[in-house]
């Protein structure tokens, strides 16, 4: 009964979000919006199943503000990079094996791991490109209490009890630097194509990613679009509307992944695995943007991240609210 109730609640949340977005879009006003509150929730529970494994959960909340054009940060790049947005945020990520309810560590196809971090970043955008840099500080391991929190939550909603958190990746600091570059190379009425390049280096992840994405429908240029969280601007026109489908894919090369092989700072982890070097990613979704609020619903596919694991899929729900 509890599981049925939870599924109904998830479906209700989907409908509520779409209705709320549509009502906001229909009532846009011509105002300057310099600040944005952002929330992204990643979870395979949004697939209306009892799965809760691999990249089990991700929650990302942030505050973004356009930087004054007189700031020295604006002049770090050529003047054609007109818009600079500062981001301050917090994130929580959870990783579990497929057989997360088994007490037998020998059956786990990846280690348990959890990260809590604080983010600070800048993005530089023009009509055809967006370049972002993000620095993160935080902690990975038992000290952040994720295991006990999940045991309580699963019990509250009637899901299988998660086990094996005593074997999670050991305590280790999180110090990360992430770079992200996107550029539109073709754009016509109702369709565009963009190149994507990403890279991470730090104590938890070291990887690089290259991919391609296309949008079909009604949308703004990449440097002003809700797809890339660039609506925050001092020049938002009246009744700004985007409604588009998005389809993309990428290849990721993994040099190091501490959530799988353990951190190089701190004690040895009781359970580690070997990460796969090449990972394939794909996503498909719907984006809707209004004058004050925009949102996106994405279905994500990811190939196996360890030699023993299987591919994984999860849903991302993204919301931006401009102040």
What does this structure look like?
With about 325 residues, the chain is mainly beta. The protein has a single domain, classed as Beta Barrel (Lipocalin). Helices cover about 10% and strands about 45% of the residues. It has helices at about 1-25, 145-155, 260, and strands at about 35-45, 55-65, 85-95, 115-125, 130-140, 170-190, 190-200, 205-220, 240-255, 280-290, 295-300, 310-320. Mean pLDDT is about 85; it is low at about 1-5.
Protein traits:
Lipocalin, twelve-stranded antiparallel beta barrel, 3 helices, globular, 12 strands
Describe how the helices and strands are arranged:
Elements: H1 2-25, E1 35-43, E2 54-66, E3 83-96, E4 113-125, E5 129-140, H2 146-157, E6 172-188, E7 191-202, E8 205-218, E9 242-257, H3 258-261, E10 278-289, E11 293-302, E12 312-322
Biggest pleated sheet: 12 strands, antiparallel, barrel
Parts with pLDDT < 50 across at least 5 consecutive residues: 1-6
CATH topology: Lipocalin
Q: State the CATH class.
A: Mainly Beta
* The CATH H-level homologous superfamily: Outer membrane protein
Name the beta content range. Answer: over 45%
Number of helices: 3
Q: Give the neighbour order of strands across the main sheet.
A: 1-2-3-4-5-6-7-8-9-10-11-12
* Whole-number mean pLDDT: 85
Instruction: Output the helix-strand order.
Output: HEEEEEHEEEEHEEE
Query: Strand tally, please?
Result: 12
Fraction of residues in H or I helices: 10-25%
Shape estimate: globular
Our measurement of the CA-to-CA distance between the termini, rounded to an integer number of angstroms, reads: 40 Å
Supply the number of structural domains.
1
Q: Just name the CATH architecture.
A: Beta Barrel
